[in-house]
Specification:
By secondary structure, this protein is mainly alpha-helical. It contains four helices and three strands, in the order E-H-E-E-H-H-H. It has a three-stranded mixed sheet, with helices on both faces. Helix 3 crosses helix 4.
């Protein structure tokens, strides 16, 4: 996972999705390339997260910066595993998966303090 400031996230969003603003998370599946000697990708995926966006929206949801960023990481991983949030039915399924995974993570870890703030 890569944390980006608002400016760099907006640049990626513009370059790859044609959208002008910064977004919360972008996920890229890189499994098309191969690594040395193994025939397998060196890096299977990259997930870019913008903590500045998280900081701006977390108040609406009553979450901490850490909880919001972990949500973005889970969201990106779900996209990489085939999740879709562009149509209502798949979006509901993806939200249920996010809720389930975040619930499991919250039982095991204190997500409120991921950044030590």
């Amino acid at each position: 996972m890569i944390l980006l400031d608002r400016e760099h996230m907006a640049r990626l969003n513009r370059e790859f999705l044609g959208r002008e603003e910064a977004t919360d998370v972008l996920a890229f599946d890189l499994r098309g390339g191969t690594g040395p000697d193994t025939g397998e990708p060196e890096t299977a995926a990259e997930i870019y997260i913008c903590p500045e966006v998280a900081e701006n929206v977390r108040g609406r949801y009553g979450t901490t910066l850490g909880e919001e960023c972990v949500l973005y990481a889970v969201h990106g991983m779900l996209h990489l595993s085939g999740g879709d949030d562009h149509a209502p039915g798949p979006r509901r399924a993806m939200r249920r998966a996010e809720d389930r995974l975040l619930g499991e993570l919250k039982q095991a870890y204190d997500l409120r303090d991921v950044f030590g703030r």
